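Hi F.,

I've been meaning to write this up properly since the lab meeting, where we talked about keeping a consistent format for the predictions we share between groups. The idea is simple: the sequence comes first, exactly as it goes in, then the structure tokens exactly as they come out, then a line or two of notes. No screenshots and no reformatting. I'm using this chain as the first example so we have something concrete to point to.
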Amino acid sequence: MATHMSDQERRNFLGAGTRTAKLATTRKNGAPHVAPIWFVLDGDDVVFTTGENTVKGKTLLRDGRVAICVDDERPPFSYVLIEGTANISRDADDLLLWATRLGARYMGGDQAEQFGRRNAVPGELLVRVTPAKTIAEANIAD
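Output, unedited:
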């Protein structure tokens, strides 16, 4: 039977390994758009980067409302759904800090700085999603 995750269980789940998130936004014409993202947590905020000329970037600059899903596809299955608002920054120092943290999580510590410098460039956006609503369920199939 499914169980609700505690706040700490949710943070542990979101921070485990190299799970990707699925980011849902709405295009200008109203059509949905979903894309995988690499992310890290800062408290309860979800932090990631994207190019300002990508569909994600253009959509987030126009409308910051988002939904994010992170799941474990292995039995007994678990997931976290987050609805919130994205805040965008182009601050070079913050972008380097968070791009490096993303690199450490997904590329490994030995490549973190290289990844951070490659991605902390003009045209890249730092995105911070502050959750307004969160659903976190564990052991769905138990």
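Notes:
Residues 12 and 48 are 18 Å apart (CA to CA).
The two ends are 5 Å apart (CA to CA).

If this format works for you, I'll send the rest the same way.

G.
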